[in-house]
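Hey, quick one: can you model this chain's 3D structure?
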Amino acid sequence: MKPIKKRLLTPGPTMVPERVLEALSRPTLYHRSPEFKEVFLETRQLLKRVLRTEGEVLILTSSGTGAMEAAVSNLFNPGDSAVVIVGGKFGQRWQELCQTYGVNPVVVEVEWGKSVKVEEVKRAIEENPGVKGVLVQICETSTGTVHDVRAIGELLKGYDDVLLIADGITAYGVYDIPTDQWGIDVAITGSQKALMTPPGLAVISLNGKAQERLEKVRDRSYYFNLRKEIKQQRKGQTAYTTATNLVVALNEALKMIDEEGLENVAKRHQILAEATREGVKALGLELLSENPANGVTAVKVPAGMDGQEIVRVAREEFGITIAGGQEHLKGKIFRLSHMGYVDMFDVLTGLEVTEFALKKLGYTSFDFGSSVRAAMELFSKKG
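Sure thing. Here's the predicted structure for all 383 residues.
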């Protein structure tokens, strides 16, 4: 029986709440109007609460990669060096951005699915005097793995001129992250993940240390010029035309997070993640990550099976869009998202469809319903 609904269980874009869709459909505001200024300033304050920072929070019209590029182009001069943690596709992106802007990437290679050790970061800094930053993912989305950014932040408190720049695109809104307390100088996220808004907005926060660095680096970006944006956004404006409807929608999504409470949001994501992991294990499958994230679960496919086929069958025959692997993991894993506008029934549906797809493709080493049963037992225990 063909499904009549489509569901999105990818690690971005994620499903959008009805309240946010309604806000998105409101008449477009002029980006220089008093009405938009009010919404924009309120949205920046709501973002500060989600990021738990007193730093400068800027909204950019771009994907999260735009904020990553802005961090590199605005905070490093050509010839500077930065330690780059590469443990997945998005760690590679940091490396590529550094190379694009003439920044020397001191690469710390991490096996995909494993977390970087803080001792490796320390060694890279000490062996490369003059390093100006450490670039890392809080959650490496391509492998569903969390890095211990808190420990890295503690380490960097002993280095006055080294910035901690953290891609939290699939971490903020999943975890309750005290950005300032952890020593994250620059935090990055995007609208289309746990912030429950369609793609198109990036967020970057800069603390005092990062703003001091900003003043020492010569301008190398026109559109992603953070000095211009700070000046304008403090007044409730942006340097250039912004996606006003998306800002209004993000404002509504942030209010939903605020109403639920950040601590409750984090607890919900933890339970959803644990239930997904228990369900997957009940099918006799292995997780890729040794330190799995609460926003997305990466699962190794059975021997001899193409993970891309699992993704195809789930989408074409059951109306559920999940994600496959990237780079050398393509065909070897599939990824189930449980971030943002997700509840227990979305997780159960994702597991059910995983079972259908596996059976259809010839994997029969489980009883129908075993993943759902395991997840339901977890939900029953955790409440």
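One thing worth noting: The mean pLDDT is 97.
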